[in-house]
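Entry 0007
Protein: Integrin beta
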Amino acid sequence: MDLRLLLIATLSAVLCGSWAQQEGSVCIKANAQSCGECIQVAETCGWCGDEKFLTVGESKSARCDDLESLKKRNCVVDKIENPRGSIDINKNKPVTNRKKDGAEKLKPEEITQIQPQKLTLTLRSGEPLTFELKFKRAEDYPIDLYYLMDLSFSMKDDLENVKNLGTDLMKEMQEITSDFRIGFGSFVEKTVMPYISTTPARLINPCTGNQNCTSPFSYKNVLTLTDKGDEFNRLVSQQQISGNLDSPEGGFDAIMQVAVCEDQIGWRNVTRLLVFSTDAGFHFAGDGKLGGIVLPNDGRCHLENNMYTMSHYYDYPSIAHLVQKLSDHNIQTIFAVTEEFQPVYKELKNLIPKSAVGTLSSNSSNVINLIIDAYNSLSSEVILENGRLPEGVSITYKSICKNGVEGTGENGRKCSNISIGDEVSFEISVESQKCPSNGKPEIIKIKPLGFTEEVEIVLNFICDCQCAAEGEQNSETCHHGNGTFECGACKCNDGRIGRVCECSKDEVRTEDLDANCRKDNGTDICSNNGDCVCGTCECKKRENPAEIYSGKYCECDNFNCDRSNNKLCGGHGHCECRKCICDANYTGSACDCSLETASCLAKNGQICNGRGTCECGICKCTNPKFQGPTCEICPTCPGVCAEHKDCVQCRAFEAGEKKDTCERDCSYFQLIKVKDRDKLPQPTDQSFPLTHCKERDANDCWFYYTFAIRNDTKEVYVVETLECPAGPDIIPIVAGVVAGIVLIGLALLLIWKLLMIIHDRREFAKFEKEKMNAKWDTGENPIYKSAVTTVINPKYEGK
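Output (structure tokens):
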């Protein structure tokens, strides 16, 4: 358990440390004059107790800075004061593992449902401390139930059903706990006008007709909590209905008395349930004015002979007052009301933590099931609350509920759906923003609502450094005893100022003292960058804590040095007294000149290809025709191949323009002949620049070579045979031309023939179409005479 708490606290410190670093050095801005003041600024602030830490011109408050800055400023680590908070568990009794059917019967005070029970937190300002609180709902936990009933006339039929409630409810509750007690109380209304009729007859019997009713009363404790169900039945059976004039009842008076009169009611330190049964609304604070009652309810017990005697004197309590008293006395309320008033009491439930609302049937026949259901609902939820917090102290909750469900914010205070035997936990963080004015320990208490158990947390505050306790009062170091020397610096007595308390406040600005703050007898005090305090310059602080004035006359600073690429000292050094102190391998007024030559190395391994010098990491080419990062580019040069073509041609083939002057002009390279192009060196095989060339001579023959510089020696590899183009073959050319002409002629004839065939077919088709469409006249010509003459023999008889 202790180890878990330590890990949680450490994690919180790391997270808060990261936040503080993002905020910048709030420590320096605070202008703390002592170690105690410094550690109150923020959790990341530390105080350097090294006597020799401050430089000339730095004020005492410069000792207060964030931890990393102090280390960078060379404060000895073991001289840095940075006290941390701590958690001590004083009482850590394990939660009870109890079985209902077990042989061991524990007293209520012997049952533990919350762990730990007491802690001591030592808080430093701005540093949250987190601890774990466990809650386990114990089985067979004792229950006290008080039944508070409205006995106005409208509840007459309900009273009949409640008369046997004691034994029936005892039987049902045995399933939940073996230690159950029940009590009974009743209420009607304040016994003044206009709530009741004050005529003598109505004071005796407030009911109309032949109804026999008891005298009106405000609240009566009928039965103190008992484990005898039959006694409940007997006393309730003796109760009579009463009456009043208005519809709202005085139930709030009764609830207040039930809550605060612990001894008269008989409450134990166990689960406390209050069942409030009514079929009407309620009066609350302010309504008493109708009866001339203006004194606020005092929240105290006023039971005499089990009767509330001050209803005519004190007003009804407010809802907030009831919430406070019910919470203080760990009472969980169940409102058993009829359907008509459900909306009103549901709104009231939202204002009263650990309360429930159930729908009461018109005659209260379902009251037992209502109580069981409401109890199960209330007991399945745990809600943490804390008492009043000291000024400057805050507390946050994180719940780890059933099945690992987590909650934060307001949901971090509670867990729901908890069954008997379930264990849940809460991570509780406590943080202080300042020391209390009296510096004394404070106590806060955290408890689950509706339970009597609580966690007591003692808060101690770190208001000063440990080294302050070892301080030397009236030390000679502090100008003849004008202060206390503690934590490496002087803490001046009242009326004294200065780094070593050397001045009185009355003499801080004199001409003699100001003269000591002028450099070289100039006119500017502290170079206009500081204030002259007791003849010593205390330099001003900049808006940016990283920017510092320093020096005896505040003439130096660390932010006015030369810049490069918009970076102070080019980002390769630091500024001291307006001059850049460069890192290794850098030089220049702005540390912008690199002494490294890696960026000047060419592919051949030479600095700037041997054509320049490396200055500040950049090649300065000696020959102006070369340029590029390593002097490798020559825009005006003819090219390597064209430059060496004539010399290679004359030496390898004894030809070319330099044939006659070859020995004189072309002996600057070493010539190596190879048989074919595959034997030429390849660029991937070399660690130095290599150029492949292909050139043509006057006879249109090609020759191939390479040019390279290796170890300052120029090498030329050349293919020893020229590659000349072959002459044209005449016969195939002539044959091809003739064949082409013939083929073209044949193609033209075929095309002509094809066109003629197509034309003839079109003409024939046209003729056939005209023939079929022709129409001829069949009438005879009138002048036509046939050439045939027929003669008939008259004597012919056909024989």
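Curator remark: Confidence is low (pLDDT under 50) at residues 1-24. The chain has 17 helices and 42 strands.
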